[in-house]
Amino acid sequence: MRKALSMLLAAAMCTSLLAGCGGSSDTGAADNTADSAADGASTSAAGGVFKLGGTGPLTGAAAIYGNAAKNGAQIAVDEINAEGGAIQFELKYEDDEHDAEKAVNAYNALKDWGMQISLGSVTSKPCEATAAETFADRIFALTPSASSVAVTADKDNMYQMCFADPNQGTASAQYIADQKLGSKIAVIYKNDDVYSSGIYEKFKAEADAKGLEIVSATTFTDASANDFSVQLGEAKSAGADLLFLPMYYQPASLILKQAHDMGYAPKFFGVDGMDGILTLEGFDTSLAEGVMLLTPFNADAEDEKTKSFVEKYKSQFGDVPNQFAADAYDCVYAYKAALEQAGCTADMSAEELCDKLIEAFSSLTFDGLTGETMTWTDGAVSKEPKGMMIQNGAYVGM
Amino acid sequence: MTFLSYLISGISLGSVYAIIALGYTMVYGIAKMLNFAHGDVIMVGAYISFCATSYLGLSPLVSVVLAILVCTVLGIVIERLAYKPLRQAPALAVLITAIGVSYFLQNAALLIWKSDPKTFSAVAGGSIKLFGGELTISAVTIVTVVSCIVIMVGLTLFTGHTKMGTAMRAVSEDKGAAQLMGINVNTTISVTFAIGSGLAAIAGVLLCSAYPTLMPTTGSMPGIKAFTAAVFGGIGSIPGAMLGGILLGVIEIFSKAYISTQLSDAIVFAVLIVVLLVKPDGLLGKHVSEKV
Amino acid sequence: MKKTKNLLTAGRRDYLISFGIVILAFAVVQTMILTGNITSSLKGQLVPICAYIVMAVSLNLTVGILGELSLGHAGFMSVGAFAGIVVTTSLADVIPFAPLRLALAMIVGGLLAAVAGVIIGVPVLRLKGDYLAIVTLAFGEIIKNIVNVLYIGRDAKGLHVSLLEPKFELAEGGKMIINGPMGVSGVAKLSTFTSGFVLILITLFLVLNLIHSRTGRAIMSVRDNSIAAESVGISVTRYKLLAFVISAAFAGMAGTLYAMNFSTVTAAKFDFNTSILVLVFVVLGGLGNIWGSIIAATLLTVLPELLRAVRDYRMLIYAILLIAMMLFNNSKLKVRLMEKRAAKRDSKLNKEAD
Question: What's the whole-number mean pLDDT along residues C186-194?
């Protein structure tokens, strides 16, 4: 009787495996025709349609970041395709659930689809895993938001659109020291997160060098991300006048509320992950009054580019874009610029494109939503972080 | 004074664990299954309440009632579709199905309410300040503790003194014998799930009132913590769930405050292990002697 | 007489089916690789599948054969993974031959996981049922937390280890191997499908031999009735611990295999959810059924990848399929199918006996 079941299951497994092999390429092709049909007749231009792929957490706890990047990139691709220029894109995002193993799976699925250039992965650890793969496969990758150093380390074809974590940590400490924002500093960071602990490490080094005094450094993890009374209590009793929060806006919103409830009002200083706090649905923005942050993107900016992007994003996806969306949008346009500069055509192989893009990015200067005159060295971007302060529920440049 | 304020933080965190643990222990005590989807029913309850207040403009109290109704129905549906067919199956099969239900609820919520977090507005605002503002007790904490006690007493009276409650205890002791005595086992277990899920809705609203952030994964971590708390107090014991929850919260806050924030997760679980080694049936658990 | 014969055939059938499936699958996949008929997607999953199979088989030893629910199996995987990485990185210059380095790393990973198994098993196995389950969960989380604050670096002077923060200065040319919460980055990938296949064969050989030996029967008697087992002179504690530690050791080796397949690993990967995932493999495959674990682990690892075509609904459908499979596995339909099959075989056996 066991045998019967075994045969049944084994057969099911084999067919599903085989079906999977055949099936995935089938659906890929189907997607292909559907997409290009939707794109209209303009696809016959000289540059051709480049297959652009990326992985990000579309489900799970980090889904917000993956979906934002996916949506941002989609807007750029739609714009470029609608213009009907020489270079056209076909975009595909695969879910990696914020997990290195799943990210490699997602990356491989994209490779089967025929990806020519990659948007890497949205979050740091998964991107470190896929970066090793893109490096080995010679596929060029530009990640919108994976910010750890290990993403680009020792890889000539891996580039970042966001600041690397050390830059943020160093820049924050410098900014605080230069502007004399505080003398006694407390830090709360997320101890099981690469992004948060990476920034803290460099912040601490730079703060020591600048003579800033860190009076309290406390942590939290996924398992204890609700209650911050102890961390805030320690910062308060240590007399900290500035609280540095290298983390995403969701835990930060809890910290701001709990600090308010206990009547503790130091200066708050955040990093780019703090962006998004003002558009958090239901959040009382008065709690964020006076919060300072270094961010490359400001959804309230008055320039034409940002306004049109924010408008499109709102009408298509129903909420205000954060920096992940803006970074991904910039990635697509940076690719367009680089492909044009290098004279690439879509019939080139991923490997040829990789060599050409490495060359193009070494001399590329790019203006985007998240910064002007951006250039790249060793995969890391150089752009100026903007110091922002929240006043009356809006960003004001500092 | 800092000790007192940390103690209050611990109790307010613990009361949230306790109220979730009450639902856990209720279902476990009667149906003898670890309902890993409990945390996700909590999340659904919180979302329903959020939508009712933010989109429909209903008052918080009405929204809580609505959340209880929806979760109760949801609990019954889940029980009928996913758990009832497994009544004769080994306990582990039901556990895995519950995990499947948990995945399902999280991903359904992701599709319905999208991935961006929402900020929940508390059902009770304000706070009490003592000793010239040095100690703060928020209204949510008081509401949570009071609800915990009310629910605990209510459940104890219900299982102890009503006909349905007696039936529940009978089913919990021996399903077969209960059936022979004319108790409808299926209905009894359905009612248990209905009550457990209704409690989950209350827990969801109070959890998100205390820590006002709402995502599809909001329920899973507190769910695991509450499960731990329920075992800590002696799973199946209603006062044990409350005690376990509050102690877990206090231990968590104290280990952060007086030992290390970096190691607090490890310390909480280490304390749990030590307690269980000394009292292998939890703090207030019934000791069942082994039959030969 | 007939009964013993059946028992023997049951054992032999287990061997045949388990090894049969694994070797056949290996042969098929190798042919696909050699003829270039394999998708990158499937190819990329081969090593993780192997690691999960070993995880599932080893957990089956605890849950199915010993009958104790463990919710912290990923903790042992974590110990094996990080121990393995330290070994391979440290020995990179001494042993240039990669498979040997990997084998050595697996042995060290397995041994350290076994040590963790003893440390955890001695106190834990006194508890029963859900209390035991929650304590294994607790240990899994403790391991995760400790690895998360562990710093190991290596330079010319040797290995440096510290907790909470890097308290050592690395000399020129030194390298951080485990960098606290940032985990491990830039590991040279050593795991191959063949190495995974060999690990599965070794695991199967040892586990099946154990189950069908005198020791295995003693372990199962502890599961079925510990008091009766004790009364005939079987040391319950000893056999419980034995099964638990062996299970931990294989999980450690699986962890090494898994970790060496990716260039980066963090402690957070080996959390409660991973433990639960492996438990799902075991229960779906059938408690105590080794080849069932193999198939379930493969199927459930591949399934989410096959579902990529349905895009946004992927994980939702995965959840529905998981529930459906559990319901089918315990449904009357399946019971009837199996009874039919059993009746057929019995009549065949009777005929042979005649």
Answer: 83
pLDDT digits (tens, 9 = 90+) for C39-67: 888 888 889 999 999 999 999 999 888 88
Show the tokens assigned to B288: 């069942």
- How does the average pLDDT of chain B come out, rounded? 86
pLDDT in tens, C156-174: 777 777 777 777 777 666 7
Kindly state which CATH superfamily the domain A42-163+305-382 is placed in.
Response regulator (3.40.50.2300)
Contact C145 B266 (CB under 8 A): yes
Between CA B288 and CA B286 the distance in angstroms is 6
How many domains does chain B fold into? 1
Question: E strands within chain C?
Answer: 150-155, 158-163, 175-179
- pLDDT score at A23: 36
Q: Is C227–B292 a contact, with Cβ atoms under 8 angstroms apart? A: yes
Contacts of B138 in chain A (CB under 8 A): 261
Looking at per-residue pLDDT, the higher value among B43 and A31 belongs to B43
Chain C CA closest to residue B108: C316
Query: How much is the pTM?
Result: 0.84
Task: Select from C272, C273, C270 the least CA-distant residue to C82.
Answer: C270
The answer as to whether B135 is a domain residue is yes
Q: Where are the beta strands (DSSP E) in chain B?
A: 127-130, 135-138
Name the 3-class secondary structure at A187: strand
- Which positions in chain C touch A198 (Cβ < 8 Å)? 182
Structural domain A166-295, CATH architecture: 3-Layer(aba) Sandwich (3.40)
Q: Which residue has the tokens 């459940």?
A: B155
**CB contact (8 A) between residue A233 and residue B2:** yes
Burial per residue of B126-136, b for 16 or more beta-carbon CB atoms within 10 angstroms, e otherwise: ebeeeeeeebb
Domain membership of residue B90 (yes or no) is: yes
**Residue of C13, C146, C262, C271 to mutate, testing the A interface (most A Cβ within 10 Å of its Cβ):** C262
Contact assessment for residue A356 and residue A348, using Cβ atoms and an 8 Å cutoff: yes
Chain B positions touching A224 (Cβ under 8 A) are 252, 256, 264-265
Q: Where does CATH 3.40.50.2300 sit in chain A?
A: 42-163+305-382, 166-295
Residue C243 has pLDDT above 60, yes or no: yes
Q: In 3-state terms, what secondary structure has residue A192?
A: coil
| Pick from C145, B204, B136: nearest CA to A224 | C145
**Is the CB of A263 less than 8 angstroms away from the CB of B117?**
no
* pLDDT for the residue numbered A39: 40
Centre a 10 Å sphere on the Cβ of residue C317 and count the other Cβ atoms it contains.
15
The answer to whether the CB of A10 falls within 8 A of the CB of C21 is: yes
8 Å CB contact between A324 and A73 = no
For chain C, domains (ranges, CATH) are 2-353 (1.10.3470)
Q: What is the DSSP letter of A44?
A: G
115-174 in chain A: CB under 8 A from chain B: none
Tens digit of each residue's pLDDT (9 = 90 or more) over A129-148: 898 888 888 888 889 888 88
Report whether pLDDT(A27) > 60.
no
Please give the residue of chain C at the shortest CA–CA distance from A154: C186
Assembly ipTM: 0.85
Q: What pLDDT is recorded for position C353? A: 64
Q: Tell me: the pLDDT tens digits for B148-202?
A: 899 999 988 988 889 888 898 888 888 888 888 888 888 898 898 999 999 999 9
- Residues C228-238, mean pLDDT to the nearest whole number: 83
Could you tell me how many residues make up chain A?
Answer: 398
CB B183 within 8 A of CB B167: yes
What pLDDT, in 10s, does the model give residues C244-285?
999 999 999 999 999 988 888 888 889 888 998 899 899 888
B225: in domain: no
Domain containing B136 equals: 12-114+130-219
Please judge whether B265 and C123 are an interchain contact, meaning their C-beta atoms are less than 8 angstroms apart. no
Q: Is residue B81 part of a domain?
A: yes
